[in-house]
Amino acid sequence: MKSTLTKIAVGEAVGIVAAQSIGEPGTQMTMRTFHYAGVAEQVPTGLPRLIELVDVRKEPKKPLMDIYLKGAAKDDEKKAQAIATDIESVTLIRLGEVTEDFAQKKIVIELDADELAHLKVDLDEVRKKIKTTVGGEIETEGTVLRVKPKVNSLRMLRRLTNRIKSLPIRGVERIRRCVVLKGKEGYFIRTAGSNISGIMKVEGVDPTRVYTNDVKEVEKMLGIEAARNAMVHEIKQVLDMQGLNVDVRHIMLLADAMTMNGQIKSIGRHGLSGQKAGVLARAAFEETVKHLVNAAIQAEEDRLIGVTENIIVGQTVPLGTGLVKLKMKI
Amino acid sequence: MAKTKKKRRLPKLPPGRKIQVLLNGRLVGNVDNAEEFIAKVRADRRAGLLPVGTNFFYNRRAKDILINCDSGRARRPYIIVEEGKSKLTATLIDQLKNGQMSWGKLVSIGVIEYMDAEEEESSLIALKEEDITPQHTHLEIDPVTIFGVTVSVLPYPEYNSSPRITMACAMAKQSLGTYTSNFNMRNDSRAHVMFYPQQPLVQTRPYKILKFAEHAAGQNFIVAITSMMGYNASDALVMNRSSVDRGLGRSIFYKTHETEERRYPGGQRDKFEIPAVTTQGYREERAYRHLGEDGVIYPESEVSTKDVLVGKTSPPRFLEEISVFGMVEEKKRENSLAIKGGEEGTVDSVMITDSLAGHRMVKGRIRSIKVPEQGDKFASRHGQKGVVGMLLSQEDMPFTKDGISPDLIINPHAIPSRMTAGHLLEMLGGKAACFTGEFGDSSAFLGDTEDKFRSQLKALGFDEYGEETLYDGFTGQAIKAKIYIGCIYYQKLHHLVSNKMHVRSRGPVQLLTHQPTEGRAREGGLRFGEMERDCLIGYGASMLIRERLLEESDRTFELVCSKCGAIGVRDHIKNIDYCPLDESTQLYQAEMSYAFKLLLDEIKALGIFPRLILRDRA
After folding, report:
1. How many C-beta neighbours within 10 Å does residue A90 have?
2. Within an 8 Å CB–CB cutoff, is residue B529 touching chain A?
3. B4 touches chain A (CB under 8 A)
4. Paired sense of beta strands B19-23 and B64-68, if any
5. At what angle do helices A248-259 and A224-241 cross, to 10 degrees?
6. Which of A85, A88, B435, B465 is the most buried (most CB within 10 A)?
7. Same structural domain for residues B212 and B343?
8. Cα distance from A225 to chain B (closest Cα, Å)?
9. B608: nearest CA in chain A?
10. Above 50 in pLDDT, residue B3?
């Protein structure tokens, strides 16, 4: 019974209503953030984050993950911390210094023994990794490694040095930092940087509850349905944080529109608005001439289905009262 | 979002670097002891050994001594203070009073000196003589000298918040008064003159010095601060209609129109005359009713909307053909000078003269009396502006036990958030001044105090806080709360509704788009914008959108070729419709907006052929 009552009527302009419902408090947000002074933000919130979401950037400005644990680590801070250290990616530069010996065309890697011990990194392991990525001969002298790669230009040498510096030694790639936090159900790990596939493989992690704020990555790893849910969740979170009360169904409609053909489309010229069905609607939005010329080349036909097209032509809009047509004159 | 401000550090000076002396920005030498040097040159300047226009400044951080004596620096005079004593002594003041001493002499004997912005940095200036301590180097001649002309006439600026002072200054410039005493002989294109300007009861010393009272720009209003049935909410004002009838806030508005008899190449010229009925573009006869034989309007005629002031005919724009009889038929074009729609008044003066180009010219001045009405703007001198929301007759206004009813009622919400305590103080001072017969002094930092006004009011038998019991004008019952009532100077601002209001139901359209024109001057429509459109879509009001955007705007019917989809034409001679492209006669009328037809034309100009595919309307 309830579901019949909440059904939206045919011809209701849900898109416009959703746009206005998100846009109106959005204006408020813009005006208010202007007055917030100071407070440095770790993660973009408010309007910048909202823009980031609807633009579907490749990677958010500050990607982050919440990793929930299973088994014993859930209630044991030490075990959780151990997993966190395991996950955190360590590049070679953190273990010591990397310099070049231009005279002999060698790369000198001076590893810090304490760091090695602290991060429990095996020297042989490091050597093996260097060997596979760089190649060449490696001399070992205590904790000092001298790599003699097969290169002849100094520029190539420099390029290799940079490769070595950022060589992942351990941990999950792209996970820059980890913090163990206590949540409602025991400990979880919050990370800076996001990598779903890497994290899900880690022992002790509950793969069913891995969270990331990178919607694009969710789409890639978990599919379009998950991306749609992630999008709804993220937008809702931004609005909630600002204390704006927007009905989820407006956001759901937005997310549906963005994900309707199997991949995430942004709002704007390169996404949703740029792919509207009608030529006139697209021309009315941006890059008028481009759309008109392309339509001419392809002899496109505008069926006057959308709202914008009908307004331009001067007809009633196929919505609300304009939806009703006379079938037969008696 | 929030940017961290980096601390700017001066580059470290090399050790052992001497103190550099820069004369007008050019390095001229070094000194060892800056303080000593500055003290010496300053003493020399005061003694008259160095020109008075020279200024010195020692920049401790950069280790530079800046000496400036070039032109274009803004400098201000100060009284010199030495060892905690002002050099302008009582004897000097006496000498000034009896004319033995002059300003120039005070400067030359080292009592007063001029400082620029840089030298001012290195001095400690006392605002009043009582404030002087041994550390002080200078004394302000008078506290009001720290303000400019506009602020210095504002009462009690030190009691108001600075944004309100800025606003008060901006509004004082819009106030109506006697802008010039020969306004009767001038032909300003627009001018306002107030009927009974008064000088404020609470005024500043600069106000007197400037002799502002001789061309005052406002009136003293009896003001009560209370809500008034919502008619003074959000900065609206409730005004006493009876006061308005007695002349409160009344002003006159002059507007001058001019036209000239121009000469054209080929010996043709304009002519001032009452146009003949045959003239092209002849208006209705009524429009010319005030004109004399010479085509010029009589002074003191009452003109209303679109009446002609000067009848004028011009030669046609194009040379016409020679008629059958071989004579050039004299055709003329109506080109009269008329007042705009919505304007009315009395012709105040008509002047016939020559223009700069030597043509005969007529200037006509229209006068209209502007009685305060709902929508006119008023402001006090504290940035408290408002628009009249209601005119209420005196019998309906609240009144005091003495039978005083206010001229104006402002809303109490206008006060706390704006922090214009000066407004309240001026009301109190004005009230006291009404009864003592003495002007209150509201000069910045040294005006009359609240205590003075309070004791005056108390002595007069009033509530010392300025609050009184008011009686409801409708019921005659006492209002339970005490209401603050006083007398304060209000200005009428030149934003009058009668010069702004605008309506349109039908009117002119633009040539290019066939859409209504824009702006009041062109009798334009109000734009039904994108966001308004979105709202109607949101409601699903399709028919209403079409009415706004098509039927009430630029609807046209165009012939469309059913074969090729191009816009067709009608041949009125053969009485057929045809398509200019494929000569088909199968055309149908289609309703569309003219803007869309224009769009199709522009797309064609782009080299694209847009076809319209027709279908029966369902």
Report:
1. 16
2. no
3. yes
4. parallel
5. 140
6. A88
7. no
8. 28
9. A296
10. no
Query: For residue A91, how many other CB atoms are within 10 A of its CB?
Result: 16
B400 three-state secondary structure:
coil
**Which residues of chain B make contact with A317, given a CB cutoff of 8 A?**
537, 542, 545-546
Domain of B467, CATH number, reads: 2.40.270.10
Q: Active site residue: B87, B136, B312, B363, which one?
A: B363
Instruction: Give the range among A191-195, B78-82, B89-93, B599-603 with minimum mean pLDDT.
Output: A191-195
Shortest CA distance from B537: residue in chain A: A13
B40 given a catalytic annotation: no
Instruction: Among B537, B606, B607, select the one facing A307 at the smallest CB separation.
Output: B537
Q: Are residues A12 and A48 in the same domain?
A: yes
Phi and psi based region of residue A85 (left: phi greater than 0; alpha: psi -120 to 50; beta: remaining) = alpha
Count of domains forming chain B = 4
> With 50 as the cut, is the pLDDT of residue B276 above it?
yes
Give ∠ CA A208-A210-A213 in degrees, rounded to 5. 140
- A100 and A163 housed in the same domain: yes
Residues A263-282 have pLDDT tens digits of 898 888 888 877 778 888 88
Nearest CA in chain B to A325: B618
Give the contacts of B610 (CB within 8 A, at least 6 positions apart).
B565, B600, B603, B604
Average pLDDT across chain B, whole number: 91
User: How far apart are the CA of B524 and the nearest CA of chain A, in angstroms?
Assistant: 22
Number of structural domains chain A divides into:
4
Domain boundary among B370, B392, B427: B370
Residue A217 lies in a domain: no
pLDDT at B324: 57
In this predicted structure, the answer to whether residue B20 has a pLDDT above a threshold of 70 is yes
* Residues A104 and A233 grouped into a single domain: no
Name the packing angle between helices A215-222 and A224-241 (round to 10°).
Answer: 160
The predicted-structure confidence for A98-136, as pLDDT tens digits, reads as follows 877 777 778 888 887 777 777 777 777 777 777 777 777
Does one domain contain both B264 and B320? yes
Q: Which domain holds residue B277?
A: 255-370
What average pLDDT does range B412-430 have in this prediction?
A: 95
Least confident among A12-21, A183-192, B316-325 = B316-325
Residues 42-81 of A with CB under 8 A from B: 48
- Nearest chain A CA: its distance from B381 CA (Å): 30
For residue B1, the chain A residues in CB contact (below 8 A) are 33, 36, 41, 48
DSSP for B256-324 reads EEEEE--B-TTS-B-EESPPPTTSBT---GGGGTTB-TTSBBPTT-EE-TT-EEE-EEE--SSPPPP-T
Partner-chain residue, chosen from B2, B549, B607, that has the shortest CB–CB distance to A311:
B549
B209 domain residue, yes or no: yes
ipTM of the modeled complex: 0.76
Residue finishing a domain among B469, B492, B515: B492
Q: What is the CATH number of the domain that holds B314?
A: 2.40.50.150
Which is catalytic among the residues B215, B306, B495, B514? B495
Domain interval for residue A141: 90-170
Q: How many CB pairs under 8 A join A and B?
A: 84
pLDDT tens digit sequence for B573-602: 999 999 988 888 889 999 999 999 999 999
Is B215 part of the annotated catalytic residue set?
no
Q: Mutation target for B interface from A279, A282, A313, A323: give the one with most B CBs within 10 A.
A: A313
Same domain, B359 and B377: no
Residue A316: CATH number of its domain: 1.10.150.390
Distance CA B288, CA B209 (A): 51
B586 and B438 within one domain: no
The verdict on A37 touching B (C-beta cutoff 8 Å) is: yes
If asked whether residues A110 and A41 sit together in one domain, one would say: no
Cβ <8 Å between A314 and B592: yes
B237 and B262 assigned to the same domain: no
Regarding predicted confidence, which is higher, B343 or A271?
A: B343
Chain A residue numbers touching B592 (CB-CB < 8 A): 313-314
List the CATH number of the domain containing A158. Answer: 3.30.1360.140
A114 and A9 share one domain: no
Residues A234 and A281 in one domain: no
- Of the pLDDT bands very low, low, confident and very high (cuts 50, 70, 90), residue B510 is very high
- State which residue of chain A sits closest to B603, comparing Cα positions: A292
Task: Report the pLDDT value the prediction gives residue B301, as an integer from 0 to 100.
Answer: 95
pLDDT score of B4: 46
Q: Does B551 touch chain A (CB under 8 A)?
A: no
